[in-house]
Design a protein that fits this description.
Number of helices: 16
Strand content: 15-25%
Strand order of the largest sheet: 11-10-9-5-2-1-15-14
Structural class: alpha/beta
Shape: globular
Distance between the termini: 22 Å
Bound molecules: alpha-D-glucopyranose
Radius of gyration: 23 Å
Number of strands: 22
Largest sheet: 8 strands, parallel
């Protein structure tokens, strides 16, 4: 793909989890005005766009991923006027604004669903996926992402309705033309209000096999994975092509699709401009090499080679034909520093090594709030501290219902829960980390006095300054956008190194992902005389054999 300077390719995106970013009115919840007050902070990082997680009206069962009204802002975040003001402030600074669009499901509090569940004759009934409950059996035994069955009984109609996520998130019926029309109208509405693009939440789930085949139950459960019957089916391609043609192209709005379980051919189809589907894909399978496929709470030993292999596959699959988002973590993950680095002995070094490893790959960086200061996992020790519906459900299922060991599960949640990525942004060492003057909706990480923006801003060697430098230098080298990716010594268990290669220019990114010194041999064919370090806080010169300190990293360019 020739380099055409498309903003969503060249730029870097900053992901905001609005509830935890900055609280402007002291109610303990981050809000839109809060984001606006910090807009210069965001701009000064050197990013080009903001992706804001959902701020629509919502009962917040899944923190806004359960939308009750697609056209209005939830009062905890402010008003539509606040939203307009924020987008204006972003645009005035040259920042694009990407919204989160959650259209696989709505909230059960959406008017469509309230109508739909009231009677089989209601015109909205067919907006969702209902099945007769006559014989008292659930239509199939698929497990919901947040635990239990994907079916919930609805008394008023004596039916079950489908929910791939929580029972408060009923799935929309994309085979109903009215649903398609409604969603197109919603997208048009926000395009007219000036959004520059959409992150399409779990969009590759919208088409399901409506025969609902029975699946092999998971060990110890009556439910099993129905995944292959509800991901990446042909309806996904048709839906995005139509959405583009009918709405998105008219406004030049970009899309990045959150997708799972995508194999090479699907990844290509989704993001190859020639196919007219998504502009980019945000696939997270690669990051999950450290957990059991059937249970995200079950850690597997960290394996750097597996990580590199997964990333390499993505890079090779999409080279010359597609585009991907690059990220270390997000609001659905534990913090990368804790997961892939050493948050006890080398927190700052790990944060830098991760950024250095990830953000010189081919794709668009999506930096999750707090990563730029090296925020780490939380240390919650009681279930009451956790907020996430996924954790709460897993606790109920395993500890309350099945009587499993509570301490074991709390330990697993501490490592892996999504709450780790959702704690309030650490602005300074004052009350509540400067996030709020009220009581934060979830506890602030205890380490906020050590890790916060105020301490790092302008401080040489800080994670924040490293991120700024990284974002500035990556723009200066065409190889970052166009080069082919070649990993070096894929099997090496501690060194993460790759080249990006373009005619006349080679970029080399190297990091030591271990708590011990490690050596790196400069690969053949690179002329030290032509090389220059473009990013590192500690490595100052290149040599044939380099000894790297724990989590030390650098990036060099040869030309
Ligand atoms: C996506 C979101 C996640 C949400 C889920 C259901 O994966 O990123 O936060 O819970 O979709 O909408």
């Amino acid at each position: 793909m020739a380099h055409k300077n498309l903003w969503w390719q060249d730029g870097a995106v900053y992901q905001i989890y609005p509830r935890s970013f900055f609280d402007s009115n002291g109610d303990g919840n981050g809000d839109l005005r809060g984001i606006e007050q910090k807009i210069d902070y965001i701009k000064n990082l050197g990013v080009d766009a903001i992706w804001c997680c959902p701020c629509f009206k919502s009962p917040q069962v899944d923190n806004g991923y359960d939308v009750a009204d697609y056209r209005d802002i939830d009062p905890i975040y402010g008003t539509l006027e606040d939203w307009k003001s924020l987008v204006k402030a972003a645009h005035e600074r040259g920042l694009k604004f990407i919204m989160d669009l959650v259209v696989n499901h709505t909230s059960d509090q959406h008017e469509w669903f309230k109508n739909a569940r009231s009677s089989r004759e209601n015109p909205y009934h067919d907006y969702y996926i209902f099945r007769d409950a006559g014989d008292g059996k659930e239509p199939c035994n698929w497990r919901a992402v947040f635990g239990g069955s994907v079916w919930e009984y609805n008394e008023a109609t004596d039916e079950y309705y489908l929910h791939l996520f929580s029972k408060e998130q009923p799935d929309l019926n994309w085979n109903n033309e009215n649903v398609v029309r409604e969603i197109h109208d919603v997208v048009r509405y926000w395009c007219r209000l000036g959004v520059d693009g959409f992150r399409l939440d779990t969009f590759n789930n919208i088409d399901k096999d409506l025969t609902f085949p029975h699946v092999e139950p998971l060990p110890g459960s009556k439910y099993g994975r129905g995944t292959r019957y509800c991901v990446n089916r042909p309806g996904v391609d048709l839906a995005i092509r139509r959405l583009r043609k009918d709405v998105l192209d008219e406004y030049g709005a970009t899309t990045v699709a959150e997708v799972s379980c995508v194999e090479k051919e699907v990844a290509k189809r989704y993001s190859d401009p020639a196919c007219g589907e998504f502009d980019a894909i945000y696939f997270f399978d690669g990051l999950n090499f450290d957990q059991e496929p059937e249970n995200k709470f079950m850690p597997k030993p960290r394996d750097l080679a597996a990580f590199k292999k997964a990333l390499n596959e993505q890079q090779q699959d999409l080279f010359g034909c597609g585009w991907q988002a690059l990220f270390i973590d997000n609001h659905d993950q534990a913090r990368g520093v804790s997961r892939f680095g050493d948050d006890k002995r080398y927190p700052a070094e790990s944060a830098k090594a991760l950024a250095n490893a990830m953000y010189f790959l081919r794709g668009t960086p999506y930096i999750f709030q707090g990563d730029e200061i090296g925020m780490t996992n939380l240390l919650f020790d009681q279930i009451e501290d956790f907020r996430d519906v996924e954790v709460r459900n897993a606790y109920r299922e395993h500890v309350v219902e099945q009587g499993e060991d509570e301490q074991k599960w709390l330990g697993l949640f501490r490592e892996r829960s999504r709450d780790n990525g959702r704690s309030p942004m650490q602005w300074d060492s004052g009350m509540n980390a400067g996030f709020s003057e009220g009581t934060p909706w979830m506890p602030v990480n205890k380490n906020y006095a050590a890790i916060n923006v105020e301490r790092q801003e302008g401080t040489p060697g800080s994670v924040l300054e490293f991120y700024k430098k990284l974002l500035a230098v990556r723009k200066q080298y065409p190889v970052v956008f166009e080069g082919r990716t070649e990993f070096i010594d894929m099997e090496d268990p501690v060194i993460f190194a790759y080249k990006r290669v373009l005619e006349g220019e080679v970029l080399l990114s190297v990091g030591n992902f271990s708590g011990e010194k490690a050596s790196f041999i400069l690969p053949d064919g690179l002329d030290i005389g032509k090389g220059r370090i473009i990013l590192s806080d500690t490595v100052t010169c290149l040599s044939g054999k380099m000894i790297l300190e724990p989590y030390e990293c650098f990036t060099a360019v040869f030309r």
